[in-house]
Each structure stands twice: as C-alpha cells, then as structure tokens.
Amino acid sequence: MREALFIKKNRDRWLKNQSAPPEAPDEMAQSFTQLVDDLAYAKTFYPTSKTVHYLNKQASDMYLSIYQNRKEESSRLVYYWKYELPQLLFRYRKTLLFSFIVFVTFFLLSFFLAAKDPELAANFFGNDYLEKTLENIKSGNPFGIYESGNPILSWLGIMINNIKVAFVFFTTGIFCGIPTLYQLAETAAMVGIFDQLFASHGLGIQFWLVVFVHGTLEITAIIVAAAAGFVLGKSFLFPGTKKRMEAFREGAKDGVKIMIGILPAFVIAAFFEGLFTRLYNDLSWFTTLLTTASVAFVIWYFIIYPVQLNRRDKQRLKQGGPADV
C-alpha cells in the first residue's frame, strides 16, 4: 500500500484520537491496539517517513494517558517522581539543554569579566557583603558567611526565597520567555562573579566543594525552573499543529508539573545551606560527601534515568503494551 493511501485510509481515526481521545477503558484499549498496529506497519514499509514519527508520538501520548489513569498500587507521589516527571524531563530535554547552555555561557562570561573588572563583584553583591567576605578570606575563614544566623531560620528563609524566585522564572515565561532568559542570565552571572571572587584568592576548588554542598541542587532546580518558563513561552509562540490556546494549556500544565517536581530540590538545598554548609571547617569530609552525592543524583535523575525510562517505554510500546504497568 502506498503511504498516501495508508494515510488517507486512517487519517480520520488518527485525528479523532488526537482531538478527542476515547475515555472508556475498552475503547481506549482498542484504539491503542490499532495505533500500535499502524505504527508497526509504518515502521515496516515507510521507516524514514514523518508518519512514523507522528504515530509514535500519538501512541506515546495515548500510552501515557492509559498509564496515568490506571489504578495505582503505589502512592501517586511515588509514581509522579518515578515516572511522570522523568518523562517530562525527557520530552523537554532540548529546552532543558538550552536553559543549561544559557546558564553556563553567562557563568563563564561573568567569571572572566570579573577577573578583569573587580568592581563587578561590588555592583552585584554590594560593598557591605563584599567587604565582609574579603575579611573572612583574610582571617582564614573564607566561607564564614554561611556560619551566620540561626540554622533553622536560615533554612526556612532561603527555601521561601528560592521557591519564590523559581516561580517568577516560570510565570514570566509567558512573555515570550524573555524575562526568564534575563533572570537566568543574571543568576548565572552572580554565581560566576562569586566564583571568581574566591578563585582570585586561590580558593577556586574550595568554592566548588563548599558552595555546591547546597548549590548543586539549588542551581539545578533554577535551571529546570527556567526551562519550565521557556516551555510556557514556547507553547504559546510555537503551537505547532495544535490550536494556540490548546498548545498553551498543555505547556502551562506541563510547566506546573515540572515546577511541582523540583520543589523538594529547593527544600533540600535550603536545608543543606542552613544546616550543613556551615560545617565545612569542622566536617569537611561530610560536606564533600554531600556535594559528591548531590552531583551524582543530579546526573542520574535529570539526565541518565529519563533516557533509560524512555528507551524502556519504547521497547514495550513495540511489544504492544504500556510500559511499567
């Protein structure tokens, strides 16, 4: 059968599944089975066609619908962080990569600019904060700023502030993502200048080992929050084949899910900053262990695991059934 005839024969059913997917379990199962059969046929006879990509996307969406609506044996939250959020991270991996590249670019740019212009640190952090930090460096306690304040109050204050900032990153994404881009660049610049402040005094390695006790999770969550903002803006600007408001609603829904998913990262990062970062002098082995564990977790959960989950799901879709059911 020619591809054009294959598309003409099944087009109405595909469009119906896309615009008004069946809600009854039996109908959904039947539609899913037909769709998988169509996908297998297209892969066999038109392997390089866009039809394969279209059917694979529709089958994945229907599978997710089945997957999300089935009765869960485990708690909804466990399911969410184990499957739903990683699937979203994979779906928007290009947006996440863009957010990461923006952060790294402005981090490096500000790091090298600060090396040539020491006044940048004062402009970003204020003279009082800068002078206090320089005094700590001279006194042999360079990161003493983290030892000030009540640990519990510091944790709560930092957590609330970071979550508020992250939601500003997300919500302002509606303005074509431009405010989100600016805020992400500004945050990256602050980190880069802060790093240079210590690196210029021979404390570059210590900066990473101490600040990233909490900074690993915190900065990762900020990058992901910015990506959620870009998802929101992109869904409105580039709706693709969907109606603009439909695409926007989907982007907003996915963005909110991503934001909810990274809330624990902000809570834990603030907890580390309030209670554990200050221990870098007395328990340096412990703070180094926390930093290492945080880096390993971020690489696994935000990069490796979503890829593994996607590969597993694809394999099970080929076999004609939903993954991890």
Please provide a written account of the structure:
- By secondary structure, the protein is mainly alpha-helical.
- The protein has two domains: 3-71; 84-311, no CATH class.
- It has twelve helices and no strands.
- Helix 10 runs antiparallel to helix 11.
- The longest helix has 35 residues, at 284-318.
- The protein is elongated.
- The model is unreliable at 321-325 (pLDDT under 50).
SSE layout:
Layout: H1 3-19, H2 25-45, H3 50-69, H4 76-91, H5 93-116, H6 119-125, H7 127-138, H8 151-171, H9 178-199, H10 204-237, H11 244-275, H12 284-318
Helix pairs in contact: 1-3, 2-3, 4-11, 4-12, 5-9, 5-10, 6-7, 6-9, 8-9, 8-10, 8-11, 9-10, 10-11, 10-12
Q: Give the overall pLDDT as a whole number.
A: 84
What's the story with the biggest beta sheet? none
* Low-confidence region ranges: 321-325
End-to-end CA span = 34 Å
Q: Got a strand count?
A: 0
Helix fraction, binned, reads over 70%
Radius of gyration: 24 Å
Overall body shape:
elongated
Describe, in short, the structure shown.
By secondary structure, this protein is mainly alpha-helical.
Task: Give me some keywords for this one.
single chain, 325 residues, mainly alpha, elongated, disordered C terminus
